[in-house]
Amino acid sequence: MSATCDQDADLMLRVQKGDTAAFEELVDKYKQPVMNLIYRTIRDATEAEDLAQQVFLQVYKAANRYRVSAKFSTWLFTIARNLCLNEIRRRSRHPAESLDAVRPDSEDEPMRQYEDIRTFSASEQMLQNELTEKIQKALEELPENQRTAILLFREQDLSYEEISEVLKCSLSATKSLMHRGRETLKQKLKPYLRSGAWQKPTI
Asked: 177: burial class by Cβ within 10 Å (0-12, 13-18, 19+)?
């Protein structure tokens, strides 16, 4: 892939040359998407912020080894997912250390973002908030690879090919993960969508 086709890759090539402003631009653009992905994977707001900092530290340290062979965002989210998997493995070995993880309903939880430009009545807003909570809960219950695939597709606009690179699996396996994840979400959310009171989400 040519850097001219990916402005982020061009910024990363500038980082290789010591351009700190280019690095700051990449951090500003991707810090929230990275934290969102990490938070939805490990469900710990404090740890998500720490891991996000580690992601960008790794990006900076690896600048000299960066090659424009894929989109910068694909490379970035691969680093983020690998750190998440390391954290999940660490927690499985030391579960007691994870008992104080910040829960989704914590007032300190800053990561989740739900963009909706429509105006709702109070009752409609309550229904939308409830559906959002159900969607989040259904996503949490998916296997990690299915959840990550769906989040990268829906929230980060990565293609199936790019998602397969992040997940380190074949394109056909990625499509299968997406299909199974979507079908599971539809089944879990079906009871909340039958009334037609909510707009069906794109999953």
From this structure: buried
